[in-house]
Amino acid sequence: MKQFKVPSIPPTTSKCIRIPNDVIEQVEKEIQGKNCTFSAFVVEAVRVALANLEEEKKAD
């Protein structure tokens, strides 16, 4: 499985989603003091999740 890395700020398009408050708090704690936005962190997490799903499909 691909390992998650806190990303630098990539170019993005705005998208509105709802995220539970406890998840927001955890993400903000992880990115504190790093060159990373909340959005960039979430995008990287989604990319890793999608890559993992693709790997699982290939394994089936």
Structural description of this entry:
The structure is a single chain. The chain has 60 residues and is an all-alpha fold. It is built from two helices and no strands. It has helices spanning 21-31, 38-59. The longest helix is centred in the last third of the chain and has 22 residues, at 38-59. The model has no long low-confidence stretch (mean pLDDT 90).
What topology does this entry show?
Layout: H1 21-31, H2 38-59
Keywords:
single chain, 60 residues, mainly alpha
Structure described in brief:
Helices cover about 55% and strands about 0% of the residues.
Count of DSSP E strands?
0
User: What share of the residues lie within helices?
Assistant: 55-70%
Alpha plus pi helix count: 2
Summarize the biggest pleated sheet: none
- In whole angstroms, the N-to-C terminal distance is 15 Å
Mean pLDDT: 90
Low-confidence stretches: none
Rg is: 13 Å
What would the principal axes of the Cα set say about the shape?
A: globular
Q: Helices and strands, in N-to-C order? A: HH
